[in-house]
Amino acid sequence: MSAVGGKVCVVTGAASGIGRALALGLARRGARVALSDVDEAGLAATAQQVGGDVHTQRLDVSDRDAVVAYATTVAEHFGVVHQVYNNAGIAFSRSVLESEFEDWERVLGINLWGVIHGTKAFLPHLVASGDGHVINISSLNGILAQPEMSHYCASKFAVRGFTESLRMEALAAGHRLGVTVVHPGGIKTAIADNAFARAKELGLPVTEADERRRRYYNDKLLKMDAGQAAETIIAGVEANKGRVMVGNDAKALDGLVRLVPSRYPGLVVRGLKRLGPR
């Protein structure tokens, strides 16, 4: 039996993408899963694919009280909680100059506070299980920044720091608690499309260059299958790795940042210019 077999595993953002793939991968290994998302239709589709003893609930991870109540509900339903995968996240693209304060509040509310809420709410249950694990999904952009993505990069850099601090605390306290931060590279999800759609909803100017960049991300950068990404993540959890890099692009760009930390921003900007003006 695998390290997750028989465990109760919580996955946020489970309606699609990596979240759905994690739910399916964990269930295949014999885990009992609790799944949440704001997308109720997508969540129901994931639950149908998972089958068996699956708990689902609509959840906005930016809502602290809702997440705290959710942790209690899951613990009461299963009697124990072993692992939480804080996966829910969104992207947004706009320059700092053009952004409104609300843009950062929305992205940080989900990407960072959602991770903090999920970790804090479930942590007592994970410690009490005697074999718990916190898995927080950062990004390649938790290591490498990009222009016009300050909202996303700030949240993902923060998730990395938050998670690494927690791992140190668990080690110092001697808890039987694994803590893993995950840095996916380009994964085939709807994150670029969703960010593009959100910009339209907000009435922001969307140019042909923006559309071209969206297509470029989908066709050239978001290449790894979400199922493959989930397998890499779960294998890292089973090996109790502190950091899991998902994809050769994530590994290569992590190496670039380590090699030329003061020069990589210029290299990124030159690379993006090949796509033409925004």
Show the helix and strand layout.
Layout (H helix, E strand, L loop, with lengths): L7 E5 L4 H12 L3 E6 L2 H11 L3 E5 L5 H15 L4 E4 L14 H11 L1 H17 L2 E6 L12 H24 L3 E8 L6 H11 L6 H14 L4 H13 L4 E4 L1 H12 L4 H10 L5
Parallel strand pairs: 1-2, 1-4, 2-3, 4-5, 5-6, 6-7
Helix pairs in contact: 1-2, 1-9, 3-5, 4-6
Question: How big a fraction of the residues is strand?
Answer: 5-15%
Question: What is the ordering of alpha helices and beta strands?
Answer: EHEHEHEHHEHEHHHEHH
Output the structural class: alpha/beta
Q: What count of helical segments does DSSP give?
A: 11
* Sheet of most strands: 7 strands, parallel
Characterize the overall form: globular
- The radius of gyration over CA amounts to 18 Å
Tell me the name of the CATH homologous superfamily. NAD(P)-binding Rossmann-like Domain
| CATH fold-level name | Rossmann fold
Give the strand order, joined by hyphens, for the main sheet: 3-2-1-4-5-6-7
- Assembly level: single chain
Instruction: Specify the CATH class.
Output: Alpha Beta
Number of strands: 7
What number is the mean pLDDT?
89
Distance between the termini: 50 Å
Weakly predicted, low-confidence segments: none
Query: Architecture in CATH?
Result: 3-Layer(aba) Sandwich
Helix content: 40-55%
Q: What's the structural domain tally?
A: 1
